[in-house]
Protein backbone atom coordinates (compact mmCIF):
# COMPACT_ATOMS: atom_id res chain seq x y z
CA UNK A 1 0.00 0.00 0.00
CA UNK A 2 1.34 3.38 -0.97
CA UNK A 3 0.28 6.78 0.33
CA UNK A 4 0.36 9.77 -2.04
CA UNK A 5 3.03 12.32 -1.22
CA UNK A 6 0.44 15.14 -1.22
CA UNK A 7 -1.23 13.42 1.76
CA UNK A 8 1.93 13.95 3.78
CA UNK A 9 2.45 17.57 2.72
CA UNK A 10 -0.98 19.13 2.07
CA UNK A 11 -1.72 21.81 4.68
CA UNK A 12 -5.23 22.12 6.07
CA UNK A 13 -7.17 23.91 8.80
CA UNK A 14 -9.39 22.07 11.29
CA UNK A 15 -11.84 24.04 13.43
CA UNK A 16 -13.51 22.71 16.61
CA UNK A 17 -16.93 23.90 17.72
CA UNK A 18 -19.27 22.56 20.37
CA UNK A 19 -22.42 21.16 18.78
CA UNK A 20 -25.01 20.89 21.49
CA UNK A 21 -28.29 22.28 22.71
CA UNK A 22 -26.81 23.57 25.96
CA UNK A 23 -26.85 27.28 26.70
CA UNK A 24 -23.14 27.81 27.38
CA UNK A 25 -19.86 26.00 28.06
CA UNK A 26 -16.48 26.76 29.56
CA UNK A 27 -13.72 26.17 27.02
CA UNK A 28 -11.08 23.97 28.64
CA UNK A 29 -8.40 21.53 27.52
CA UNK A 30 -6.23 23.93 25.52
CA UNK A 31 -3.13 23.36 27.64
CA UNK A 32 -3.46 19.58 27.23
CA UNK A 33 -3.91 19.99 23.46
CA UNK A 34 -0.76 22.07 23.15
CA UNK A 35 1.18 19.61 25.32
CA UNK A 36 0.01 16.73 23.11
CA UNK A 37 1.01 18.53 19.91
CA UNK A 38 4.44 19.38 21.32
CA UNK A 39 5.08 15.79 22.40
CA UNK A 40 3.44 13.77 19.61
CA UNK A 41 5.73 11.07 18.25
CA UNK A 42 5.83 7.36 17.53
CA UNK A 43 8.28 5.28 19.52
CA UNK A 44 10.12 2.28 18.12
CA UNK A 45 7.69 0.01 20.01
CA UNK A 46 4.71 1.88 18.49
CA UNK A 47 6.11 1.28 15.01
CA UNK A 48 6.84 -2.35 15.84
CA UNK A 49 3.19 -2.81 16.86
CA UNK A 50 1.89 -1.00 13.76
CA UNK A 51 3.93 -3.32 11.55
CA UNK A 52 2.03 -6.28 13.05
CA UNK A 53 -1.41 -4.83 12.24
CA UNK A 54 -0.79 -2.97 8.96
CA UNK A 55 -0.76 -4.86 5.64
CA UNK A 56 2.63 -6.29 4.73
CA UNK A 57 2.86 -4.15 1.60
CA UNK A 58 2.70 -0.78 3.41
CA UNK A 59 5.22 1.55 1.78
CA UNK A 60 8.35 1.94 3.91
CA UNK A 61 8.18 5.70 3.31
CA UNK A 62 4.99 5.81 5.38
CA UNK A 63 6.71 4.07 8.29
CA UNK A 64 9.63 6.50 8.01
CA UNK A 65 7.14 9.37 7.97
CA UNK A 66 5.58 8.13 11.22
CA UNK A 67 9.01 7.83 12.83
CA UNK A 68 9.83 11.44 11.91
CA UNK A 69 6.44 12.78 13.03
CA UNK A 70 6.45 15.77 15.37
CA UNK A 71 4.26 18.79 15.97
CA UNK A 72 6.76 21.48 14.99
CA UNK A 73 4.81 22.64 11.93
CA UNK A 74 1.37 22.67 13.55
CA UNK A 75 -0.17 26.03 14.44
CA UNK A 76 -2.90 26.49 17.04
CA UNK A 77 -5.28 29.46 17.30
CA UNK A 78 -7.75 29.37 20.19
CA UNK A 79 -9.82 31.49 22.48
CA UNK A 80 -8.42 31.76 26.04
CA UNK A 81 -8.94 28.72 28.23
CA UNK A 82 -11.80 29.22 30.69
CA UNK A 83 -13.76 31.48 28.32
CA UNK A 84 -17.53 31.10 28.34
CA UNK A 85 -18.60 29.95 24.86
CA UNK A 86 -21.86 29.21 23.13
CA UNK A 87 -22.83 26.37 20.75
CA UNK A 88 -21.34 26.61 17.24
CA UNK A 89 -18.80 29.22 18.33
CA UNK A 90 -15.26 28.41 17.12
CA UNK A 91 -13.05 27.31 20.01
CA UNK A 92 -9.80 26.11 18.51
CA UNK A 93 -8.32 26.10 15.01
CA UNK A 94 -5.39 23.83 14.21
CA UNK A 95 -3.40 24.26 10.99
CA UNK A 96 -0.76 21.97 9.58
CA UNK A 97 -0.06 19.05 7.27
CA UNK A 98 -3.18 16.97 6.59
CA UNK A 99 -1.54 13.69 7.61
CA UNK A 100 -0.41 15.02 10.98
CA UNK A 101 -3.76 16.59 11.77
CA UNK A 102 -5.59 13.38 10.90
CA UNK A 103 -3.33 11.48 13.28
CA UNK A 104 -3.84 13.85 16.24
CA UNK A 105 -7.40 15.09 15.63
CA UNK A 106 -9.26 12.48 17.71
CA UNK A 107 -7.02 13.07 20.72
CA UNK A 108 -7.50 16.84 20.50
CA UNK A 109 -11.28 16.48 20.22
CA UNK A 110 -11.39 14.24 23.29
CA UNK A 111 -9.14 16.55 25.32
CA UNK A 112 -11.32 19.60 24.60
CA UNK A 113 -14.68 17.83 24.86
CA UNK A 114 -14.00 16.11 28.18
CA UNK A 115 -12.35 19.09 29.91
CA UNK A 116 -15.06 21.48 28.70
CA UNK A 117 -17.83 19.11 29.76
CA UNK A 118 -16.42 18.64 33.28
CA UNK A 119 -15.78 22.36 33.77
CA UNK A 120 -19.27 23.26 32.56
CA UNK A 121 -21.03 20.63 34.70
CA UNK A 122 -19.18 21.90 37.79
CA UNK A 123 -20.88 25.29 37.50
Rg on CA atoms, Å:
17 Å
Summarize the biggest pleated sheet: 3 strands, antiparallel
Count up the helices.
Answer: 5
Please estimate the helix content: 40-55%
Structural class: alpha+beta
Number of strands: 5
Percent strand: 15-25%
Principal-axis shape: elongated
**Averaged pLDDT, please?**
85
Low-confidence stretches: none
- As laid out across the biggest beta sheet, the strand order is 1-5-3
Distance between the termini: 50 Å
Q: Which sequence of SSEs, written as H and E, runs from N to C?
A: HEEHHHEEEH
3D structure, described in words:
With 123 residues, the chain is an alpha+beta fold. Helix content is 47%, strand content 19%. The strands form 2 sheets. Strands 1-5-3 form a 3-stranded antiparallel beta sheet. A two-stranded antiparallel ribbon has the order 2-4. Helix 2 packs antiparallel against helix 5. It starts with a helix and ends with a helix. The model has no long low-confidence stretch (mean pLDDT 85).
Task: Write a concise keyword list for the protein shown above.
123 residues; alpha+beta; three-stranded antiparallel sheet; 47% helix
Summarize the structure.
With 123 residues, the chain is of the alpha+beta class.
Layout of helices and strands, plus pairs?
Layout lengths: L4 H5 L1 E7 L7 E2 L3 H10 L4 H10 L6 H9 L6 E4 L5 E2 L4 E8 H24 L2
Antiparallel strand pairs: 1-5, 2-4, 3-5
Helix pairs in contact: 2-5
Amino acid sequence: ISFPKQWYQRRVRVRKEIHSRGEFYFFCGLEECIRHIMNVKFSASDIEYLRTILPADVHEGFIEYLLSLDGSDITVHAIPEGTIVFPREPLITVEGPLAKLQIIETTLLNLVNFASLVATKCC
